[in-house]
Design goal:
The complex is a heterodimer of chains A (292) and B (360). With 292 residues, chain A is mainly α. Chain A is 73% helix and 4% strand. Chain A contains 11 helices and 4 strands. The longest helix of chain A has 30 residues. In chain B, strand 1 and strand 2 form a beta hairpin. The chains are: A mainly alpha (292), B mainly alpha (360).
Chain lengths: 292, 360
């Protein structure tokens, strides 16, 4: 029973990582940039839904939609102001700009909402008791796992079937050729950022519901972990991000339970290193040999 | 061809210019300090600035010269810092002379960081691009976590080390003899360190670092590393052993980071492992990129200005980090956006001349 409960909490944590990692991986696949500000968009989503839920007393679904709307706007704004002018710049310059945006978001949050820890009111309460109270699963965990599966399926269908999804895949394969085929590359990249940021808002709500402390740096560590998850699964690959996120969550949960709380992160990162040594492009990533 | 020649001569000028600028800055700051112009806060910044300059130079070797992104450089600084603290605190009675003790500590810190750099380099340098970056990040976090569990004490029998992996150990478990003292207390970090780092030591170490890095770049090995950066396949087909040369550059880089760490660790009575987290690695990376990849003088200036900037902005208190973020974004936009760059060049008549001197 203990094992099952650790597995479920791992799956739930992993689902949050997976949702964040999807945002990372989509942006990387298309814009070939590591968006270090992604974690901070999660934090903004958390704060917006916190204000809507606890201060304004709005219903849960309105709060979540509001958070998604604000984060989507924020994503488009960040992309347009900070990343779009650097489309042709070296990737390191874009990386540093992303770090600047990350500092900017964190410090803006610090000024607007203060450094005090906000205790987040979970979007769903209660636990499900199974096997005569031996196994208890919180509804938040179930919701998180469900949300992750729905998003995963939705994104897969979106990229496979819709026109915009096809445009995204075309841009990630070859931007120049995509442009020649009449695809608006800039618009496609903006839409990718918008989707990624909306997902980050959902991740923010779910993360804060499971771990109800909200501070301006809430998003950093999950952001780094999700980035790790994206690389773990093979960066640029949507099923890879899903698999990487879930595995990372489960490994972290088991490491905390059975080995050592202090070393949980170390074990997660050690597994990542071993996986990358065996499969240099991640679990589901395509290894592209260089052409001479 | 003419561009190449121009770059080569600019390189040479830059080479000596850097030493002159650093020495002049050191003398100026020393006179200002003796004249009482610097306040207490600024005096406190002197050694950390030196440490971050060494860090920036060392990371520039990895990122600028070797062309690989490292996101875990603070880990090596951390190794240096805690090794330095343990060595120095253990030798307090044996080696009373502070300068000698500092030298011994720096030596030990450098060796430990070099060994760690070699061991970590073995897996890391086989990877490429963003995958290499994420693994350095992973190692940085692992080093931080492990040092966070470290408990070290010293008594008449020598140094005692235990790891607090389960969260159930404390200083009492070291079983120190009478008169022994704890040096590192797990998550509390190093406590009660005797501060022996000086501004002069920082200056000397910057000069040594510069000497090593500048001469390395101009050596046969350095040229091989640059060749690998510019075109790995071409270099490999010319018979350059990619792994070997990358490893040499990486180990030199981590060793220097360890030296910076020792100076940093011995400048404060207490430091924690969390100080050397991902954000510190990123901070140094920002110095390197803003200073210009491969440009050592640029790294030095960027590290100095950007480390002091948040302090100088103290009067804006809450807004200072926000201003810092905006400045960072604007500088990156101004230096990398083609339209803005063209606009700046039109406004500034000196800009065209500067372009030629800048080393790629």
């Amino acid at each position: 029973m203990e094992f099952l409960s650790y597995l479920i909490s791992g799956l739930s944590l992993g689902s949050v990582y997976a949702i964040i990692a999807l945002g990372y991986t989509m942006v990387y696949g298309i814009a070939k940039m590591l968006n270090f500000a992604h974690g901070d968009v999660i934090m903004v989503g958390g704060y917006i839904s916190y204000i809507a839920l606890s201060k304004l007393g709005l219903p849960v679904w309105v709060s979540v939609l509001l958070a998604m709307a604000v984060c989507t706007l924020l994503g488009i704004l960040i992309e347009g102001l900070a990343y779009k002018p650097l489309r042709a710049a070296p990737s390191l310059a874009v990386l540093i700009t992303a770090i600047g945006v990350s500092y900017f978001l964190q410090n803006s949050a610090l000024l607007i909402w203060g450094a005090n820890v906000k205790s987040y009111q979970s979007v769903v309460n209660g636990t499900l008791k199974l096997f005569g109270n031996q196994l208890s699963i919180s509804y938040v965990s179930i919701l998180t796992i469900l949300a992750c599966v729905v998003i995963m399926v939705g994104l897969t269908v979106f990229t496979a079937k819709t026109k915009m999804g096809k445009a995204m895949r075309a841009c990630s394969e070859d931007k120049g050729a995509a442009q020649l085929m009449g695809i608006n590359v800039n618009k496609t990249i903006s839409v990718t950022f918008a989707i990624g940021s909306a997902l980050a808002a959902i991740a923010g709500v779910l993360l804060c519901s499971s771990y109800p402390t909200l501070v301006p740096t809430t998003g950093s560590m999950p952001g780094i972990k999700a980035f790790t998850a994206a690389v773990f699964g093979g960066i640029g690959s949507i099923p890879g991000a899903f698999l990487g996120g879930l595995l990372l969550g489960i490994i972290e949960s088991f490491a905390k339970a059975y080995i050592s709380t202090q070393l949980a992160n170390t074990i997660v990162f050690a597994v990542l290193i071993v996986v990358l040594l065996v499969r240099p492009a991640g679990l589901l990533g395509k290894y592209v040999p260089e052409k001479v | 061809m003419s561009k190449l020649k121009k770059n080569a001569s600019g390189f040479k000028l830059n080479h000596y210019l850097t030493y002159i600028v650093v020495t002049a800055a050191f003398l100026a700051v020393t006179f200002m300090n003796q004249g009482g112009i610097l306040n207490k806060k600024m005096q406190g910044l002197l050694v950390p600035v030196c440490c971050y300059i060494i860090m920036a130079l060392s990371l520039n070797l990895t990122v600028g010269i070797m062309g690989e992104l490292s996101l875990g450089h603070a880990g090596f600084m951390s190794l240096g810092a805690f090794t330095g603290v343990v060595v120095s605190q253990s030798l307090v009675d044996t080696v009373p002379n502070e300068a000698v003790r500092l030298c011994i500590s720096i030596l030990f810190g450098a060796v430990i960081a070099a060994v760690a750099g070699f061991l970590i380099g073995l897996p890391v340098l086989r990877l490429r691009g963003d995958y290499l970056a994420i693994v350095t990040l992973a190692f940085g976090e692992i080093i931080m976590d492990i040092i966070n569990c470290l408990i070290v004490g010293h008594d008449s029998k020598g140094v005692h080390i235990i790891f607090n992996f389960k969260g159930d150990k404390s200083v009492a478990d070291l079983n120190l003899l009478e008169g022994g003292k704890a040096i590192i207390k797990g998550a509390q970090g190093a406590v009660g360190t005797k501060t022996i780092s000086t501004f002069f030591a920082g200056f000397v170490m910057i000069m040594i670092t510069l000497f090593i890095v500048q001469n390395f770049i101009r050596s046969r090995t350095g040229r091989a590393v640059i060749a690998i950066r510019d075109n790995r396949i071409a270099a490999e087909s010319m018979g350059v052993n990619v792994m070997k040369y990358k490893m040499i550059a990486f180990v030199i880089s981590t060793t220097l980071a360890g030296v910076a760490g020792v100076l940093y660790g011995l400048n404060f009575t207490g430091i924690t492992a969390v100080k050397f987290n991902f954000n510190t690695s990123i901070l140094v990376l920002v110095f390197v990129v803003l200073g210009g990849l491969g440009n050592m003088l640029g790294s030095i200036i960027a590290a100095t200005v950007l480390y002091i900037l948040p302090e100088a902005l103290r009067q804006f208190s809450d807004y200072r980090m926000l201003i810092y973020a905006i400045v960072l974004i604007l500088v990156m936009l101004a230096t990398n956006n083609p339209q803005l760059k063209a606009l700046l060049q039109k406004i500034n008549p000196f800009n065209k001349k500067k372009e030629g001197g800048a080393v790629q």
